[in-house]
Amino acid sequence: KLTNVKSMQENCRYNGVPEPTADSVQAICHECFICCCFALCRRPPKLREISWLLFVFFSSDIEISRAQSPKAVDVLAKEIGLLTDEVEIYGQTKAKVRLSLLERLKDQPDGKYVLVAGITPTPLGEGKSTVTIGLVQALTAHLNINSFACLRQPSQGPTFGVKGGAAGGGYAQVIPMEEFNLHLTGDIHAITAANNLLAAAIDARILHENTQSDKALYNRLVPVVNGVRGFSAIQFARLRRLGISKTDPGTLTEEEINKFARLDIDPSTITWQRVVDTNDRFLRKITVGQANTEKGFVRQAQFDIAVASEIMAILALTTSLQDMKERLGKMVVANDKKGEPVTAEDLGVTGALAVLMKDAIKPTLMQTLEGTPVFVHAGPFANIAHGNSSVLADKIALKLVGEKGFVVTEAGFGADIGMEKFFNIKCRASGLVPSVVVLVATVRALKMHGGGPNVTAGAPLKKEYTEENLQLVADGCCNLQKQIQITQLFGVPVVVALNVFKTDSPAEIDLVCKIAKRSGAFDAVPCDHWSAGGRGAVKLAQAVERAANQKNGFKYLYMLDLKQEHCNKGFGNLPICMAKTHLSLSHQPERKGVPTGFILPISDVRASIGAGFIYPLVGTMSTMPGLPTRPCFYDIDLDPITEQVKGLF
Amino acid sequence: KLTNVKSMQENCRYNGVPEPTADSVQAICHECFICCCFALCRRPPKLREISWLLFVFFSSDIEISRAQSPKAVDVLAKEIGLLTDEVEIYGQTKAKVRLSLLERLKDQPDGKYVLVAGITPTPLGEGKSTVTIGLVQALTAHLNINSFACLRQPSQGPTFGVKGGAAGGGYAQVIPMEEFNLHLTGDIHAITAANNLLAAAIDARILHENTQSDKALYNRLVPVVNGVRGFSAIQFARLRRLGISKTDPGTLTEEEINKFARLDIDPSTITWQRVVDTNDRFLRKITVGQANTEKGFVRQAQFDIAVASEIMAILALTTSLQDMKERLGKMVVANDKKGEPVTAEDLGVTGALAVLMKDAIKPTLMQTLEGTPVFVHAGPFANIAHGNSSVLADKIALKLVGEKGFVVTEAGFGADIGMEKFFNIKCRASGLVPSVVVLVATVRALKMHGGGPNVTAGAPLKKEYTEENLQLVADGCCNLQKQIQITQLFGVPVVVALNVFKTDSPAEIDLVCKIAKRSGAFDAVPCDHWSAGGRGAVKLAQAVERAANQKNGFKYLYMLDLKQEHCNKGFGNLPICMAKTHLSLSHQPERKGVPTGFILPISDVRASIGAGFIYPLVGTMSTMPGLPTRPCFYDIDLDPITEQVKGLF
Fold first, then answer.
1. Distant-in-sequence, close-in-space partners of B573: CB < 8 Å, separation ≥ 6
2. B193 closest CB neighbour out of A230, A278, A641
3. Which tops the pLDDT comparison, A556 or B570?
4. Could you check whether the bond before residue B631 is cis, i.e. omega within 30 degrees of 0?
5. Given CB 3.0 to 4.6 Å as the disulfide criterion, which of A327, A646, B497, B541 pairs with B138?
6. CB neighbourhood size of B68 (10 A)
7. What are phi and psi of B175, to 5 degrees?
């Protein structure tokens, strides 16, 4: 067992490799292969482990990413049939694609639409992103079938916090992964700017209304400019909503002026929060307005992580610029003192929000390690929104791949939550019909469901997970079976992808595939894409292709004529987005396998009217992650000479 | 006098043009030229006013901007001698330029370096940006001399708040102005992300230190990963600073562990604030940490506008990636309980900050309305920082224009503050020597200094400013004279550019130019670039060219061996950045002309150690603007069909 420099030095000496110097233990360790094997395995490595160990010690995700030069994005764009004026290049490796393409290709039939979902995961995640990427790599680079992966843009918070990036991993990655994980083309920054402009407008408006007479307020809202006094377009829209048809500001009655100028927001009902794309736990609950200039109008508020903004959910669900603008205007931010909803449109900010979001609406084109095209677009928080990438990226990709091509996208969380929202919310918004579901499972997660010990991020895995244990696997397959059944409720064929780890035994792998097929999966195949790239997912790709030709009876699980709590405000016909833990089929994360007999406790029901869904909260949902004692950023660095990023994963 | 729709309608009828309909007063007004002339002038227009009025009513800044199609930025890049791999294209109209160019052209002599500064302005601003842009348009498009404008990137806060954008105006603009004024290439967003990651790290660290024993803290900071325990590179750096030469985490003594693991930040000394690029007055003073998860560690804090971040000041002053990384690490965020400074490096976040800023360090290439190249790069808040665009953009531009070319850049505020900081702080950081100062004056501002009535943003100008008044002009020239003298203290020739408004009389214009020359200006010329583009600044360009060939005795006003308050922390040898109002030579905004006999009251002395200056506060300086009752965003809109932005100015 190697836990200190001294024993490492001894080991290096024993193995005849240079000893670590005092200054660079980390670097030297990587040169001493055998020493590292000991450190990790606590025994000499077995022959079959060598290639895996080589990979682990000599290639981090970012090193693999960097070892492959992406093709120039304008070349990629041409390859996939984009016209020059449909592409906005951002540097060498990223481009935005204009929505005009949808008009040009509107008569082109769509390709096949594949959703990658997962069983109930461990807190470590079971590899849905790597399966998504591995699958398109297999389809295009190995089977010569057009394909496209559509992925979420990750929040920068976790990249510097606990979780790390989200570009896939190993040999199934989007490259360059540092671009994917950092600012990308600025969409999340645009959302932050739009979200916070609206937040600032709410508090400033309350202050101005509270400190001015109707007349003063009205004179400022509708000023004389160069001798002329007129309403702006957005003020005309407000007049129309108030039923005032006058156009001359001088002719409004006192009552009309009062109705027009006062939104009369009840501060205690404000649901619109500020956001930052940083894990900043100290902003979870704050008091704002404490400077003298705000004249005592303090109130309690909070910051959420940027991807939790309703504007992100809108970006993911919108179908056009016009539609986005309408959704932005409809966002409800508070109630007035009579209990009526106050919207972004009432605050006069719809146009400005649309302007801030005008580039974000265009999907960003990147590529996998094997040159397959990828759209990265939108990443709504899976906790309180639907957690799926954008409708627009999927629509554009489905046109680009052509009728025989495949678009593969990923749902957040387990199938019970992520896939359910994908079907009932996203597919309803887009009108698109999925062809196949790929359900990702791991032996690790199945063992957990079979009664294995707790799996915790950061802590070493218990031996149940690193040694063969067929009983735990067999018992845990109940969760896989249940998720297959859930998928079948939607009428879509399901292929199980077993994401293989080096500790999985052949017997364990066989067992999972056998049970999966017995449980109704169209097929079940082990995948090695993480260590082998697309080559490791060829069998999966073949199974998916066959499944896509199956009969497809896709249907939503419920219609929108349900009666709901929010009906009385005219928001009755919206789909439901359950804000529930992904770590259990129930609301209790510790209940693994297939828990039954529980009653979901709904603590509150909230509405994202612009995005278009109601979200009941099952318990408390954190909307702002925190930084741990040792955040990821300790390992992140930039080489000022080569300009290379180190330590992202 | 037209103040309502009815009288407009009458006027239109009288002039035989279509009457405004109820729905579109604004639009119809623009079609009725005579009616608008009446509205503005309150009398029939004079012949010489016609072209100006045509401009005002038919062309807003954004309409002029849109009427001109910018050349493709890759064409522009080629024209100015950039190699393909030195350019990172962002869409059709923006590109980032890589710093490698400085190495390639290191033996090329620099061009002439021109600073545009101003007299003490009115709150409306006197047109330094338009002069800067008009001047390069004249030099390149009309005199066929290579030139480059280097401008600041504006904050998005004022764009949606009171002030509007900052792309110049009229026929002296950077285009497309909506790109210039909005996200651009994401630099301010990157600064926000880096600034807030550091802020989150400070509070999280205090929480973790307060709730854990030395041992627990140390075990988390230096965990066993895959059986190996090692320090990260940034932790080794901290050990070195603490004088601990050990490399094996297992061998530190308890005392060493305590020193290593505890930063022991005194929360009352935290100077690092969070930022947003939004005018959000309710964040001026807040209380953070009120959620239960933060265990009672609440404290008072504030958000500043993003451009007030020290990271912005660093971006503006840095000379390379290596230098930027060092400056980021040196930023002091608080003191520990012994009164010693705590830096970003101590928090382990230097590398992550550099990674977040790796693209922001590259200047953004755009163009003027007449196709002249422009760098837009960095825009530090002029209140508490030096308010100048970046050293790197200037350096690159000086190489690109060649020995006979000109680089024109702008200082914030009046010459007493903006130019002083440009010379003593920015030129000291860059080592560059300015060739000419262009001092911008307006008849309007001179009248104010001569005793004219108050000038307030948003209120109509008093008649003293719209009618000839030679006495007010003559009296007000004292401020111009003083600013010329200040410039001469630095040993640089000064050319006065009188930015002409349509209300200025020929006699007023002559008077200003005469007094300016008598006061020591190398030359003084009226400019019409706003309405005539580069053609209107040709005489200015010729004067600048002649002045650049004058003898130049540039010198700093002070050396860095002054004794200062911050000396005892080893920060003694830094230049001074006075945080003083720009509305008076004194600290009292209402004292116009050349006030004397005042004593500057310094309320506090603060330090930006990473950026490299000390800033004494002269009174209170607001670092967060607010939204007024009717913010600019009421007029801003996006046409969802044409994708055009409306209402920016």
1. B560, B561
2. A278
3. A556
4. no
5. B541
6. 17
7. -120, 155
Map residue A97 onto helix, strand or coil. Answer: strand
Residue % of chain A over a pLDDT of 70? 89
Element (H, E) at B172: strand B172-175
Give the H or E element holding residue A314: helix A310-317
Residue B164 has a pLDDT of: 66
Q: Do B190 and A196 touch (CB under 8 A)?
A: no
Residue A200 CA to chain centroid, in angstroms? 26
CB-based contact, B250 to chain A, within 8 Å:
yes
Say if CB A441 and CB A499 are below 8 A apart.
Answer: yes
Residues 6+ apart with CB under 8 A from A595: A584, A585, A586, A588
Rg (CA), chain A: 27
Q: Give the A:B interface size as CB pairs under 8 Å.
A: 354
Whether residue A210 lies within 8 A of chain B, CB to CB, comes out as no
pLDDT reported for residue B227: 74
Please give the structure tokens belonging to residue B439.
Answer: 């001092």
Q: For residue B98, what is the enclosing H or E element?
A: none
Active site residues of B: 128, 130, 152, 163, 382, 413, 501, 530
Q: Judge contact between B248 and B193, C-beta under 8 A.
A: no
Question: What is the average per-residue pLDDT within A551-575?
Answer: 79
* Cα–Cα distance, A513 to A532 (Å, whole number): 20
Using pLDDT thresholds of 50, 70 and 90, give the confidence band for residue B531: confident
Contacts of B23 in chain A (CB under 8 A): 236, 247
Distance from the Cα of A268 to chain B's closest Cα (Å) equals 16
Nearest to A186 among B186, B231, B626 (CB): B186
Residue extent(s) of CATH 3.40.50.300 domains in chain B: 81-153+366-375+388-548
pLDDT at residue A622 greater than cutoff 90: no
| Interface contact B647-A88, CB threshold 8 A | no
Residue A291, chain B, CB below 8 Å: the answer is yes
Chain A contact for B3 (CB, 8 A cutoff): yes
Give the pLDDT of residue A69: 83
Pairing of strands B637-638, B645-646: antiparallel
Q: Cis omega before residue B595 (within 30°)?
A: no
Instruction: Enter the CATH code of domain B188-356.
Output: 3.30.1510.10
Q: What is the CATH number of domain B81-153+366-375+388-548?
A: 3.40.50.300
CATH 2.40.50.140 is right for the domain spanning A67-186+361-548: no
Sign of CA dihedral B100, B101, B107, B110: negative
The residue to which tokens 């497309």 are assigned: B176
CB-closest option in B232, B458, B641 to A634: B232
Top pLDDT among B52 and A420 is at: A420
Q: Which of residues 292-331 of A touch B (CB under 8 A)?
A: 293-294, 297, 300, 302, 320-322, 324-325
Give me the residues of B, 429-458, that contact A with CB < 8 A: 458
Q: What is the pLDDT of residue A569?
A: 66
Partner-chain contact A42 B186, CB within 8 Å: no
> Residue A621: its pLDDT value, please?
82
Region(s) of chain A under CATH 3.40.50.300:
67-186+361-548
- Tell me, what's the pLDDT at A182? 93
Separation of alpha carbons B500 and B504, rounded Å: 7
B91 in contact with A at a CB cutoff of 8 Å? yes
Could B640 and A274 be called an inter-chain contact, meaning their C-beta atoms sit closer than 8 Å? no
Please report residues of A whose CB lies closer than 8 A to that of B8. 228
Q: Write the ipTM.
A: 0.90
Per-residue model confidence (pLDDT) at position B267: 97
The pLDDT of B498-512, averaged and rounded, is 95
**What CA–CA distance (Å, rounded) separates B143 from B543?**
12
Q: How far is it, in rounded angstroms, from Cα B621 to Cα B590?
A: 16
